[in-house]
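Data deposition worksheet. Section B asks for the primary sequence of the deposited chain exactly as it was used as input, without tags or linkers unless they were present during the calculation. Section C holds the resulting structure in token form. Section D is free text for depositor observations; keep each observation to a single sentence. Incomplete worksheets are returned to the depositor.
Section A, Depositor: J.P.
Section B:
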Amino acid sequence: MTQDVRKLTRCIWSGVEEPNQQAIIEKKSALNLLLAFVIATKHYLREEYSDEYDDLKQLISHLPRFKTPSSNLPLPPETGVEADNEKNETRQWRPFKLKAYDHSTPTNIPIEISYYILSYIKHVSKGNLAPAWAISTMQSSLSNLVDTLSNFERILRTPIPMAYSIHLHISVWLYILSLPFQIIGTTGWWTLAVLGLGSFCLLGILSVAYEIENPFGYDENDLPLDDFCRVMALEIDMILGSRILTAEEWIYAESNKPFAPTSMSTPSTLLQKSKEELLEILVKTKTSHQLLTQTEPNEKLETSTRDKPKAD
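Section C:
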């Protein structure tokens, strides 16, 4: 997710043209939604489905509210049955009656935000405000963000099966309780120490397995999602706080010394030279680099020879 957020930020802020102040407002609004996607994903994975959180509300308060139910939890059971024609059985059906943005009802806010980011990409493409490569990169990165969200959901929605959990607990405890009778004849009074060490290892592995089952919560060993969101916010703010220079501006800046250390001339001075003179400077630069790389191993060899003790 970090990689795709950075790609989208770079393409939106650097790849989209700014013919007027309206384009700047549009770019800043799109980047706000990009940050909102990250924060909404954090709350979504923690099963916090409201849009009233302080770090999220300001970013999406202007968006219309969709009625997109969350795929994170099953729909609540309702009264009703449908017949199974093959096996003549009945099963519950769950009608589509969820109200979005209700505090007690899950809603998939990250997916809703992705709709608006896509609408901005379509707006940029329609207005020819960005080259084709930038549009393609933005669409690909947005698709990757949604795919990443689906992968997070797969982790969240795939707990350890209850039957497996019960069987594992019973098996571990049966082994621990039967272990003293197997080793007491050999270890004697050391049985208690061996039993304690073995119990610590087995129960520790069992506890760790359940600890990493859901890494998106607030436990000490869970993933630092808040820190991740803060880092993304700082990176986006840092980009927004500075204007991206054009290639002509930073290449032909007077502080640029492209042929240093062979030549300390500035681009304006180098432009007065001929192509052959510039190529000659490049050859000198290559030669100096080769001499430097050859000198360093010789210096190391002399140093090691000098430090080596002489034989008697």
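Section D:
Residues 72-104 have pLDDT under 50 and may be disordered.
The first helix runs from residue 2 to 15.
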